[in-house]
Design goal:
The structure holds two protein chains of two kinds. Chain A is mostly helical. Chain A has helices spanning 2-27, 34-51, 54-81, 85-107, 134-156, 158-168, 170-175, 180-203, 212-227, 232-251, 256-262, 272-275, 278-281, 285-296; strands spanning 123-127, 130-133. The longest helix of chain A has 28 residues, at 54-81. The chains are: A mainly alpha, B mainly alpha.
């Protein structure tokens, strides 16, 4: 059961990290505002769901986020690009800051009531006395569908081929007569639209609040580093891995002392470390994993290149 | 330290500048005798040290860190615990020396964490520093014994028998003296560092790591050393915060603090030693003055930062440096009318934007208690936000400002480019 939950969460993470990875490997931009687009997706969907319902929002909200993303690329990043990578990074960093403030302004500082649609509210099946909600199944369906579509788009279509070519040899692609800046804009818009879609289906499964971008943002970065910068496959494996680690560790209530007792070591009673449970460790585990990966395999699980 | 270094630090002009700064720092609170000013200056002094320590990484070594608050926070927490220990058993340390302890704590954190983070430069470093920052911030909530949980750790800076000179550091003015002394020492030390071989190598590693390796330097080692030293000064700054406010919460080492120091340093200008000082002063003053006037302060701050990134990526210091060059070349006078001409439409544009933002805030976020107030007071004018009048006016002012700025701004830019090309033409 935890496995299923973990996979659901992992797939959601992959929706975010795939966009981030695509943008990074293509433009060399680490988009700090990526999770902000995830948040925008959730809020747009909430707003649309209060007006015309959830289903139109599922389609419209990611598109809106994509348009916002493309505009940001066209009018902001392209300008910052002239000043180098640090300026680009800082631009997205400032953008994340700004988006959070604007969300505060429009939707307030507390969580909004963004709910799962009634049609999807219920139990899909029951396994070992725990029920699996329909909505989780729906999330998996959307994520997998999106994944397959993305794969097909990148490998089977003309535009996908051009994008792949532009990833490695942008000058050559430009020389062949393709408008590379426009491809960049499309990729950025597409990547942010994916993040928006993740927000639409993740916002009501978890909680839609101004802090959600910061909460997810750093985890997505961990995913990208662990998977290897610029590797889609690595991002996929790392997303599932971290999704599962997080869900499993939340479910476990044994303490560090118990863990060490299994291997025959008794920790001194009463120390703070010994009393920590795995659940309490849960927020730290992804970062520990990242540090471990960086020490032992600096290019990440499937990263092709150093740095 | 070789004679070249002492030459550069203690050249006569520099000496005057340093002395002038010190005198000004001491004269300000004496001249105005205002409690508000003293606490503002205290905050500025701390932030100057913090921003300068950050620029040792970003400006000098080219390392964009998103987790600098870790070293600051470690310095603060260790200082607080030391303060409490001194209070309990009266150890020989005095409050005045605690920033040294905080600095060492920051340094130690740098030794441990820097080993992992400085393996890579560039984007990878940025991400790893972010991850490490989050890791430490998450740990802070897990160990309430050391980090004090939600409430933080507090203490009392008046401990022991007082110092050699009889200061107890209790009154804010004495505290301010302590901060100025430490900030001055730290600033001189950091400036001296830029003149040492290590400081120069850091620049080389920033500009051309490959070449630096060919010359025979280990770039990873240079980055590691710079991070450790930067951790020391960040620790000093953290320590001063702890002593100044007598409370440290886990907020001091989270991502927000790291973000603020990055913004300050960048806005001030990372290419110049004095850039972060300008940034720290400006942002702290804005934070307290503008923050006291409007709820939308963070929004303005974000917009201002994006504007700087897009328009003046060298920060305020670079803008000043260009003006100085123009002045030296006798071209400054030519630009003054253009600056004045463009200032007016920019002010109109700003007024329109501020009006729009403030009215939106009043309507949506709620000024104080009455969320969704439809009537608000902006500049003592009673505005009815449920009527289209004020909105149309604000949009109109913004549009006029924008059009005028485009029009006159274009001419200013042309004059500016002409002046710059004359300037560079003179040089060549």
């Amino acid at each position: 059961m935890s496995l299923l939950n973990g996979i659901t969460y992992g797939l959601l993470l992959f929706m975010l990290s795939s966009g981030l990875t695509l943008i990074f490997s293509m433009m060399g931009i680490l988009n700090f505002a990526h999770a902000s687009f995830y948040m925008l997706g959730a809020y747009f969907a909430y707003q649309i769901s209060t007006w015309i319902g959830f289903w139109p929002g599922l389609l419209v909200a990611p598109l809106m986020v994509g348009v916002v993303g493309a505009a940001v690329e066209r009018y902001g990043l392209r300008r910052a690009h002239r000043f180098g990578h640090v300026a680009e990074l800082l631009f997205t960093f400032g953008l994340a800051f700004l988006v959070e403030e604007i969300v505060h302004l429009i939707w307030g500082k507390v969580a909004v009531d963004y709910r799962i649609p009634v049609e999807l509210d219920g139990t899909l099946f029951t396994l070992f006395d725990t029920s699996f909600p329909i909505y989780k199944g729906f999330m998996m369906l959307i994520s997998v569908g999106m994944l397959v579509a993305l794969y097909m788009l990148l490998t089977r279509t003309r535009i996908g081929l051009i994008i792949q070519a532009a990833l490695t040899k942008p000058d050559m692609v430009e020389a062949l007569g393709h408008n590379v800046p426009r491809i960049f804009m499309l990729v950025f818009g597409g990547g942010t639209a994916l993040a928006g879609l993740a927000g639409v289906i993740g916002g009501n499964a978890f909680v839609t609040e101004p802090g959600m971008a910061a909460a997810v943002g750093s985890i997505v970065f961990v995913v990208v580093v662990v998977g290897g910068l610029g590797s889609l496959g690595g991002a996929f494996v790392a997303s599932l891995l971290i999704g599962c680690i997080q869900t499993f560790s939340i479910a476990l209530t044994i303490s560090i002392t118990d863990v060490f007792a299994v291997i025959g070591v008794t920790l001194p009673e009463g120390s703070q470390v010994a009393r920590l449970t795995i659940t309490q460790l849960a927020p730290v585990l992804p970062y520990l994993l990242m540090v471990g990966i960086l020490i032992f395999r600096p290019r990440g699980l499937m990263g092709a290149r150093e740095s | 330290m070789n004679s070249h270094v002492s030459d550069a630090v203690f050249r006569r002009g520099r000496l005057l500048l340093w002395g002038g700064f010190l005198a000004l720092a001491f004269a300000l609170p004496l001249a105005f005798k205002s409690g508000f000013l003293v606490s503002l200056l205290c905050q500025i002094g701390i932030m100057v040290v913090f921003a300068l320590s950050y620029n040792m990484l970003l400006g000098q070594t080219g390392l964009l860190s998103f987790g600098h608050a870790v070293y600051y926070g470690m310095g603060a927490f260790i200082t607080m615990h030391m303060l409490n220990i001194i209070g309990k058993d009266g150890s020989p340390l005095t409050t005045a020396l605690l920033p040294l302890v905080g600095g060492l704590a920051g340094m130690l954190a740098g030794v441990v964490l820097g080993y992992v983070t400085t393996k890579k430069a560039g984007t990878t470093f940025a991400m790893i520093s972010l991850g490490i920052g989050e890791l430490v911030a998450a740990c802070a909530l897990m160990f309430p014994g050391f980090f004090g949980g939600e409430g933080g750790v507090s203490g009392n800076r008046v401990v022991g028998k007082g110092d050699l000179l009889g200061f107890t550091w209790g009154p804010q003015v004495e505290m301010y003296g302590l901060i100025v002394a430490w900030a001055f020492l730290a600033t001189v030390a950091m400036f001296a560092l830029t003149q040492t071989p290590l400081g120069r190598m850091a620049n080389a590693v920033r500009d051309n790591p490959e070449r630096a390796e060919f010359v025979g330097y280990d770039t990873q080692r240079v980055r590691y050393l710079m991070l450790i030293l930067s951790g020391f000064f960040a620790g000093v700054a953290g320590s001063l915060t702890a002593i100044n406010y007598e409370i440290v919460t886990s907020e001091t080492l989270n991502a927000h603090t790291s973000g603020v120091v990055l913004l300050m340093t960048f806005v001030g200008g990372i290419g110049f030693f004095y850039g972060p000082i300008i940034g720290a002063i400006l942002i702290t003053v804005m934070q307290i003055v503008v923050g006291g006037m409007t709820h939308a302060w963070l929004l303005y701050f974000g917009l201002f930062f994006l504007f700087m990134v897009l328009m003046a990526p060298g920060g305020i210091a670079s803008v000043i440096a260009i003006q100085r060059n123009l002045w030296m070349a006798g071209l400054f006078g030519r630009m003054v009318p253009h600056y004045l001409a463009v200032a007016l439409p920019v002010l109109v544009l700003l007024a329109g934007l501020v009006g729009l933002i403030e009215m939106s805030y009043a309507l949506l976020a709620g000024e104080g208690v009455g969320a969704g107030d439809t009537a608000t007071k902006v500049m003592k004018m009673e505005l009815h936000l449920n009527t289209p009048g004020p909105w149309l006016a604000a949009v109109g002012v913004t549009a006029v400002g924008m059009a005028l700025t485009r029009w006159i701004g274009g001419r200013t830019r042309a004059a500016w480019n002409a002046a710059l090309s004359t300037l560079h033409g003179d040089k060549a």
